[in-house]
Design goal:
By secondary structure, the chain is α+β, with helices and mostly antiparallel strands. Helix 1 crosses helix 5 (about 80-100). The longest helix has 30 residues, at about 325-355.
C-alpha cells in the first residue's frame, strides 16, 4: 500500500472547523474561530453526527474532492449522507471567511511536511517490512495522503471513507513534524493495510484471535489495544531505521503510558522480531504465552496510582518499624518506581507546556520567550524531549518552571511550576528518592492528581486524606495484596509489644493466605498481580485467567476526576446592576449573583478595578477599571455583540481564568442575555457578550450571569451590532448590594 500526496482546500477548512468546535486538545491553544460561534457555524456538529451514522469516525472521501464548500451537495455519493452534507455546506460557507487569512499561514509548514514524508517514507523502505509485520500482502492500492495544517486532536489523524473502505488518510503537519509526522502517517497506512479487505494466512488479526481466542469484552479489548501497540511499534521502528534519534509515537504520545502492562509484554518480544533476532511466529507465540498468564483485565484496566501510593507509604511505615522484609521490598521497588514516576511526569510536563501557544511573551526574557515559542512548534511532547536533550535536563526544567510561573499563570501554570521545580531538584540529586516519590503523590495540578492523564485517579484524594490523617485502615484497603500480607503478618507478631500496631487495621479473615517473603515483580510496568507496586488492590488470584469473576464483564471505563477550584475569595451580593457607558448610549444590565456568584463578582471586580488584573498590552499590573476604554470588538447583527478585551482582537484577557457556572435550566432561549465568552470548559476570563436573538446552540457552553434591563438599552445593543466600526466602552458603573 502506497500513498500519493493530495491537497484539498475544502478538507483543510472542514478539519480546521472540526478542530475549533470539538477537537482542540486544550482551551488555551491557538484558535481562529470567534467564540461564541454563530448558529450557522454550529450546524457543523449536527452534520458530523449525521455522517457518523454511516461512515463512523472517518470522513466521506467526497469532502476532499469538492473544490469549494458549495460543491459538496453535487459530490454526495450516498443518499444517507446528503442531509449531513447540506448542514456542513452551510457551516463551511459561514466559517470560510474566518479562516481565509489563517490557513495560508501554514503553507511553509505543509511544504516542509511533504518533503519530510517523501524523504522518510520511501515505499521501498517501508512497504515490505510493514506487510511482513502485519501479515498482509501488497495489493498495489494507493491511498490519498492529505497533510493538513489544522486537524482535531487527539488524534490529529484520520481516514477518508468511500463505499465502506478507506481511500485516503490525513495527518496534521502542524502538530506532527519530521520523523513524528512520518511515524503518524505510517501508523495510519498500517491500519489501512490491516483493513484492506484481504485477509491472507498470517494476517495479524487472525493470528491474535488464534492465540488469544474469546469473545468477551475484555478479551476483544485486549486484542484491539495489542494490535494498536504492534502497529505503532512497527511504524516507530521503520522510521527510526532512517532517523536514529526518533522517539516513537507510542512512547511520546501516550499508548505506552495508558497501557503499561500490555505495552511491556509487547516490548519484550515484538522489537526482537523487528530487529531480526526471532521470527514473527515466535514473537506472537511468546506474547500470547505472557498474556495468557493473567486475565485480560490485568492488561487492559488502567493503573491505580492510589495503590502505588498506599504501597509506598505502608512499606515506609514497616521499614521504620524494623521489618526487614518490607525494607528489602521497598529498596528493591524504589528505583523502578522513581523511574516510572519521573518518566510519567516528564511526558506530562511536555504536554502541559503545549497549552501556552497563546501566551504573550513579549514582556519576558528573550530566552524564556524563545523557549515557549519553540516548545509549541509541533507537538509539545515531542519538542520538549528534543529541547531537554539540547539544553540539558536542569536548564530545560528551569525554563519550564519559569514558563509555568510566568506567562503560563493565565493558563493554570501556577500549579505546574512547583511540579517542574520538583523534578528539576530530583534531576540535580537535591531530593532523595523517597522525598521525590512522596512529592509526586502529594503535589497536584489545577484539576487534581498529577497522574490523571493516563491513570485512574478516582480514589487518589481519598488515599491522600487517609495518609494525612494516619488512617492506616484506609491505606490498607488501597494497598496491593503483598503489602497487606506483610502488614498483617507484622501486626500479629507485634501487636502486644508496640502501640503503633493498635490502629484500625482489619484482621485477616480465617484461612486467609499470608506471605512473609516478598517475591514477584519489582513494580510497574512488568509486575504480577498482587505484588508490590502492581498498581492494583485486588487479591493475588483476582486475575487468574480461569477464575476471574469479572472476565466476562463490560470493560471498565477510566473515570476522569476534575476539580474546579475557585482561586479568588468570593464576595457575596444580593443584587447588582451595571451600566455600560458606550459611544452609542448606555446599556443597563441586571446581574444574577444568586445564579453565578463567582462570575458576577469577577465582573464587578474587573469593572471597578477592585480585583487585580494584568494589562495584556504592557504585561504590567493594571490600575483602575479593566473595561474602561475597551471596545466591542465583535459585532454580529442579529446574533451578538462582544467586548471585554483590552487588546481589541478577541484574544486578550485579564491574566487569569475562572471556571464556568453553567446552570442546566438557564439557557439562551430568550434574547439579550449577558454571558461570559470562553475558549472551552472553565476558561472564562474577562470577555463578555450580549445576545440579540434566541441562541439555543450556546446552551450548556457559556455562563449566563445577567440580562439587558430595558427597551432603550436593547436598542443600543442593536445599534452597536449594526455598527461598521468598533464601538468604545467608556466605563462601567456598578451599583451593588
Amino acid at each position: 500500500m502506497r500513498f500519493r500526496q493530495q491537497r484539498s482546500t475544502t478538507l483543510d477548512l472542514a478539519l480546521a472547523l472540526q478542530r475549533e468546535l470539538i477537537g482542540r486538545t486544550g482551551s488555551w491553544e491557538l484558535n481562529f474561530l470567534p467564540r461564541p460561534v454563530t448558529p450557522e457555524t454550529d450546524l457543523f456538529r449536527d452534520g458530523l453526527r449525521s455522517w457518523a451514522r454511516t461512515v463512523g469516525s472517518g470522513l466521506p472521501a467526497f469532502l476532499a474532492a469538492a473544490r469549494r464548500p458549495q460543491d459538496l451537495p453535487t459530490r454526495v455519493d450516498d443518499d444517507a449522507l446528503r442531509p449531513g452534507a447540506e448542514l456542513i455546506t452551510t457551516a463551511l460557507t459561514a466559517a470560510a471567511p474566518m479562516f481565509a487569512d489563517a490557513l495560508p499561514l501554514f503553507e511553509d509548514v505543509r511544504k516542509q511536511g511533504v518533503a519530510e514524508v517523501t524523504d522518510l517514507l520511501a515505499p521501498e523502505r517501508y512497504l515490505a517490512p510493514l506487510c511482513a509485520a502485519l501479515g498482509t500482502v501488497d495489493t498495489g492500492r494507493t491511498l490519498d495522503l492529505h497533510l493538513v495544517p489544522l486537524a482535531p486532536a487527539p488524534p490529529a489523524t484520520g481516514f477518508l471513507i468511500a463505499e465502506g473502505r478507506a481511500t485516503g488518510v490525513y495527518a496534521d503537519c502542524r502538530r506532527f513534524r519530521g520523523a513524528t509526522l512520518a511515524d503518524a502517517v505510517l501508523t495510519m497506512l498500517g491500519w489501512a493495510q490491516l483493513k484492506s479487505g484481504a485477509i491472507p494466512e498470517g494476517h495479524l488479526s487472525t493470528e491474535l484471535v488464534r492465540r488469544l481466542p474469546g469473545g468477551a469484552p475484555y478479551r476483544r479489548r485486549l486484542r484491539v489495544v495489542l494490535t494498536k501497540i504492534l502497529v505503532e511499534m512497527t511504524a516507530g521502528h521503520l522510521v527510526r531505521a532512517v532517523d536514529s534519534g526518533h522517539r516513537p509515537c507510542a512512547d511520546v504520545l501516550g499508548t505506552k503510558w495508558r497501557y503499561p502492562r500490555l505495552y511491556s509484554v509487547a516490548e519484550r518480544h515484538w522489537p526482537r522480531y523487528l530487529d531480526g533476532d526471532i521470527d514473527r511466529d515466535q514473537a506472537l507465540t511468546r506474547m500470547a504465552a505472557d498474556l495468557s498468564a493473567h486475565s485480560p483485565r490485568w492488561f487492559v484496566d488502567h493503573v491505580d496510582p492510589s495503590s502505588l501510593a498506599a504501597d509506598f507509604y505502608l512499606l515506609e511505615w514497616l521499614t521504620a518499624a524494623g521489618d526487614r522484609t518490607a525494607r528489602a521490598r521497598l529498596f528493591q521497588w524504589l528505583p523502578h518506581l522513581c523511574a516510572e514516576l519521573a518518566g510519567h511526569l516528564d511526558n506530562v510536563i511536555g504536554n502541559e507546556l503545549g497549552h501556552y501557544e497563546r501566551a504573550r511573551t513579549g514582556h519576558y526574557p528573550r530566552e524564556l520567550a524563545d523557549f515557549i515559542g519553540e516548545i509549541n512548534q509541533g507537538d509539545s511532547r515531542v519538542t520538549w524531549q528534543r529541547l531537554r536533550r539540547e539544553l540539558g535536563h536542569a536548564r530545560a526544567l528551569q525554563l519550564a518552571t519559569e514558563a509555568f510561573a510566568g506567562p503560563g499563570v493565565e493558563f493554570g501554570g501556577e500549579a505546574w511550576a512547583p511540579v517542574a521545580a520538583m523534578v528539576r531538584r530530583y534531576v540535580l540529586h537535591e531530593l532523595p528518592d523517597r522525598v521525590f516519590v512522596d512529592q509526586c503523590f502529594t503535589l497536584e495540578h489545577n484539576n487534581g492528581s498529577l497522574f490523571d492523564k493516563y491513570q485512574d485517579t478516582a480514589t487518589m484524594r481519598e488515599l491522600l486524606d487517609a495518609q494525612a490523617a494516619t488512617d492506616l485502615g484506609t491505606l490498607l484497603t488501597h494497598a496491593s495484596a503483598e503489602v497487606r500480607e506483610l502488614w498483617h503478618g507484622r501486626f500479629r507478631d507485634s501487636a502486644e509489644h508496640h502501640p503503633m500496631w493498635l490502629g484500625p487495621s482489619p484482621t485477616p479473615p480465617p484461612g486467609a493466605r499470608t506471605r512473609r517473603s516478598g517475591r514477584g515483580g519489582t513494580g510497574l510496568p512488568g509486575s504480577a498481580p498482587g505484588t508490590v507496586g502492581c498498581g492494583d488492590r485486588g487479591e493475588r488470584d483476582a486475575f487468574d485467567p480461569l477464575r476471574d469473576p469479572l472476565r466476562d464483564s463490560p470493560v471498565r471505563i477510566r473515570r476522569m476526576v476534575a476539580r474546579r477550584p475557585f482561586s479568588s475569595p468570593l464576595k457575596i451580593y444580593r443584587s447588582i446592576t451595571a451600566v455600560l457607558h458606550t459611544g452609542h448610549g448606555d446599556i443597563h444590565l441586571d446581574l444574577r449573583p444568586e445564579e453565578a456568584p463567582y462570575t458576577a463578582d469577577n465582573f464587578v471586580g474587573l469593572a471597578t478595578g477592585s480585583r487585580p488584573w494584568t494589562d495584556p498590552l504592557t504585561g504590567a499590573a493594571g490600575t483602575g477599571g479593566f473595561y474602561d476604554g475597551t471596545v466591542f470588538h465583535r459585532r454580529v447583527p442579529g446574533f451578538a455583540i462582544q467586548g471585554g478585551d483590552r487588546l481589541g482582537t478577541g484574544h486578550g484577557s485579564a491574566g487569569y481564568r475562572i471556571p464556568d457556572e453553567v446552570l442546566p435550566d438557564r439557557g439562551f432561549e430568550h434574547p439579550f442575555q449577558l454571558a461570559m465568552a470562553n475558549l472551552g470548559r472553565d476558561s472564562t476570563g474577562s470577555q463578555f457578550f450580549i445576545t440579540l436573538a434566541p441562541a439555543t446552540h450556546l446552551n450548556g457552553h457559556y455562563t449566563i450571569f445577567g440580562e439587558v434591563a430595558d427597551a432603550p438599552s436593547r436598542s443600543v445593543v442593536g445599534d452597536i451590532a449594526s455598527s461598521r466600526t468598533a464601538v468604545r466602552l467608556d466605563r462601567v458603573t456598578i451599583s451593588a448590594d
